[in-house]
Amino acid sequence: MIRVLLADDQTLVRAAFAMLVESAPDMEVVGQAGTGREAVELARSERADLVVMDIRMPDLDGIEATRLIAADEDLAGVKVLVLTTYDTDEHIVEALRAGASGFLVKDTRPAELLDGIRTVAAGEALLSPGPTSRLIARFLRGPAAGPPVAGPDCLSEREREVLTLVARGLNNTETAEALGLSPLTAKTHVSRIMGKLGARDRAQLVIVAYESGLVTPGST
Predict the structure, then answer these.
(1) Measured between alpha carbons, how far is 94 from 208 in angstroms, rounded to an integer?
(2) Model confidence band, residue 147 (pLDDT cutoffs 50, 70, 90)
């Protein structure tokens, strides 16, 4: 059973999400927060597996709330799935840097939201496929982008190829097909890359790939 915490400042939105999550046989809502600070407190008290986090909230926004959750050793197993109103929200990259495991836009279909919760709870990254490369490229390679947290220089040629595909949003199965590998081998490569780069999850691998220049806007 996936224990889900919902954080959104709109009561009706939370209620709708709660009904949807509770309709899934493998999920339960363990709390609802109207501010980022409430989200952090409830994540600690309710021991949620995953927080569905709105970016724009009063008191403490979703980005800062995500950062506090990611930095808390007692909450190491808590994943954050960020929801945003628009797929051009520049704060999405900040949320990923803060420790979110992925994002979806709020007009995502109900079934896709439930699948997204399952994906992130299982330890994978979820990057809304349509805007991912465009969004990451725009905000990481722009003037405001900081220096790379870690570079891919320590990776083998094959690992660099895998990282490139991960940064473009491919999952393990798709990466394996593209490189002629077995899914297990692709998964092993991803795990080793994360270990070498000190990345928390696949979402952070995307950040590293773009910040280091391994993947650039418009590359194919």
Answers:
(1) 13
(2) very low
**What residues does 27 pair with on adjacent strands?**
2
What pLDDT score does 27 carry? 97
Residue with more model confidence, 143 or 7: 7
Residue 208 has pLDDT above 90, yes or no: no
Longest Cα separation, the chain = 50
User: Does pLDDT of 186 surpass 60?
Assistant: yes
Q: Which residues pair with 83 in a beta bridge?
A: 54, 104
Q: Evaluate whether 206 touches 167 at the Cβ level (below 8 Å).
A: yes
Who's near 96: CB < 8 A, 6+ residues apart? 82, 102, 103, 203, 204, 206, 207
- Both tokens assigned to 215: 């993947």
Select from 68, 135, 67, 75 the least CA-distant residue to 95: 67
What is the DSSP track for 86-146? STT-THHHHHHHHT--EEEETT--HHHHHHHHHHHHTT--EE-TTTHHHHHHHHHSSTT--
